[in-house]
Amino acid sequence: MIKLRPAQITDSSAIAALHADNWRRTYRGIYSDAFLDRDLDGNRSALWHGRLSTPADNQYVTLAVEQETVAGFACLYLDNDPTFGSLLDNLHVVARFRNQGIGRLLMQDCWRLVAEKATIKTMYLWVFEANQNARSAYERLGGTNVETVQHQNEDGSQAMICRYVWNELTLTV
């Protein structure tokens, strides 16, 4: 049975490993192979150690766990943008746990946090235009693509990204 809990600093390695694995599985052709195949694990490890050791005041990282095994996570920044509200910065599910409703469960928890704690009752995320699987899932969950812009990736390459937005009326999780 999947349970949700707040992430702790001791979870940083598991979160980083999942983040790196999903990037390698999903972002070939968006990021360079050199970037994905070099020290992506170290890059994500440093990111998550920093985020969990000194979290921003508006940061919430939630884990989905099954018997102490990390099945997924979400990272939310409340009231991140004065127009679009809270930023769902990361949403990742372990490959073997996909299609079991874990992404939806994490989204529901993020929306609960927005409803309970945010001043602006909207939530948004950025997704690569080329990531059709994620875009389709977000649309099934009531997200609306409000803009598509060019983005400079961490490896220096360029890609188009879409901003998906949910408000109280469109969130269907």
Automatic annotation (TrEMBL):
InterPro entries, per database record: Acyl_CoA_acyltransferase, Bact_Acetyltransf, GNAT_dom
N-acetyltransferase domain residues: 2-165
Domain of life the protein comes from: Bacteria
Keyword entries, A-Z: Acyltransferase, Transferase
Any GO molecular function: acyltransferase activity, transferring groups other than amino-acyl groups
PANTHER family cross-referenced by the UniProt entry: AMINOALKYLPHOSPHONATE N-ACETYLTRANSFERASE-RELATED, AMINOALKYLPHOSPHONATE N-ACETYLTRANSFERASE-RELATED-RELATED
Protein name according to UniProt: GNAT family N-acetyltransferase
Source organism per UniProt: Fibrisoma montanum
